[in-house]
Design goal:
heterodimer, A: about 300 residues, alpha/beta, 8-stranded mixed beta sheet, globular, B: 3 helices, about 20% strand, elongated
Chain lengths: ~300, ~100
């Protein structure tokens, strides 16, 4: 497509199509969107983060990432739609305009590029990164078990052939370490939202311990509001709660680490589906999924904006 | 390219804690190469598992022997993947 208006959000795209979409969006909106490369993947692909900013320096910021598990294609597709939604709504939607007049939004659409390329070229079911594991015939680390938060505890595997292999040490994966370094150097993130699929849940810390997060009550109430907004569009029902109480124990998880860095509004989404298609969600559900998720994201971003800390 | 002819995705419906741990055991049986799509949580939530064709018979016997209920969520994964691929290629041709 020659511009992002003619980009087809209602179908799945390859990594190169998404990367060229990002470049088009930046070129079309030079005063709002820029692209930051926060590092590179094991196979040398750039880790692109879109920055949506109306000025200022080091403003309080919101982070959204999709595609950390590469086979969860509806998440990268939704992330692409979110990027266009932000530039379309800025200046039109009062709530988003107010947020962007005071805060920055960072969006990493293809958070695991090697894995994503591999799902297109070789194995549609691939979830992990693609770095070889010395001494094993199995490659890849689960990038959602590699964070330095409860790392190595129950809820991750030490077997390189497991889908939940945690890696040789915390932050061993460049796809993870790049975000860690970026978040630490920025130092002013106020919300961190990592988007997965499937099973329709909105989760907050912790996954590695039963100890409640100190902000549990606020996080729980905000999650309830967010999934209520989400359901208002198509009636999609979500469950919500802390990771360990709602699904299972998971150690080395993204939002446990971000929460322990002091980023209070740390959430994980599990988007559609309910158990008809699993990871192979039909493309005609991409836009409805992105639209309903956006309502929940706006609830979280609004709350973050209205409750500075 | 890895293909998934005959792979099925089973939606397993545990009745109690005992059945949950039996399903967990299944996850640990690396030789059957089951791929957990939606993991064990608690009794009220289903567990979705992709089972390679060569392990299907064993897994179904294992579940039925323990009286664990399951349904077949995806009959043949490769058929669904082929449809997804065809749709992507058709849309790309249209865009061209």
């Amino acid at each position: 497509p020659r511009n992002t208006d003619s980009f087809d959000f209602s179908r799945y795209h390859t990594i190169s199509e998404i990367y060229s979409f990002q470049d088009m969006l930046v070129a079309e909106n030079p005063n709002l969107v820029s692209k930051i490369v926060i590092g590179s993947s094991y196979e040398g692909r750039p880790l692109n983060v879109l920055k949506f900013s109306t000025g200022g320096t080091n403003r309080p910021a919101i982070w959204i990432d999709t595609g950390i598990h590469s086979r969860e294609w509806v998440t990268q597709a939704s992330g692409t739609w979110f990027a266009k939604k932000i530039v379309t709504d800025y200046g039109r939607d009062p709530a988003l305009t107010a947020i962007l007049n005071k805060m920055d939004i960072f969006l990493e659409i293809v958070t695991n590029p090697d894995g994503f390329a591999y799902t297109h070229s070789s194995n549609r079911m691939w979830r992990k990164t693609r770095k070889p594991n010395p001494g094993s015939s199995c490659a890849g680390v689960d990038p959602n078990r590699n964070w330095d938060s409860g790392f190595g505890g129950p809820g991750a595997s030490s077997n390189p052939c497991s889908e939940t292999y945690r890696g040789p040490r915390a932050h061993s994966e460049s796809e993870v370490k790049s975000i860690v370094d970026f978040v630490k150097s920025h130092g002013n993130f106020k919300a961190f939202i990592s988007i997965h699929s499937y099973s329709q849940m909105l989760l907050y810390p912790f996954g590695y311990t039963k100890t409640p997060a100190k902000d549990q009550a606020e996080l729980h109430n905000l999650a309830q509001r967010a999934i209520t907004d989400l359901a208002s569009l198509y009636g999609t029902r979500y469950r919500y709660g802390s990771i360990i109480n709602t699904i299972y124990q998971a150690s080395g998880g993204t939002i446990d680490w971000t929460y322990e860095q002091g980023i209070k509004y740390s959430y994980t989404f599990e988007l559609r589906d309910t158990g008809r298609y699993g990871f192979i969600l039909p493309a005609n559900q991409i836009i409805p999924t992105a639209q309903e998720t956006w309502l929940a994201l706006m609830a979280i971003m609004n709350h973050t904006y209205n409750n500075p800390y | 390219k890895v293909t998934f002819e005959g792979h099925q995705v089973l939606r397993i419906l545990p009745k109690d804690e005992a059945q949950l741990s039996l399903i967990k055991n299944l996850e640990e049986m690396i030789e059957f190469q089951v791929d957990i799509w939606m993991g064990v949580t608690d009794v009220s939530n289903p567990v979705d598992v992709r089972v390679p064709f060569q392990s299907l018979q064993f897994v179904k016997i294992y579940l039925e022997a323990q009286n664990i209920d399951y349904t077949i969520m995806i009959e043949d994964l490769q058929v669904v993947l082929d449809e997804e691929q065809e749709e992507m290629e058709a849309a790309a041709r249209l865009a061209q």
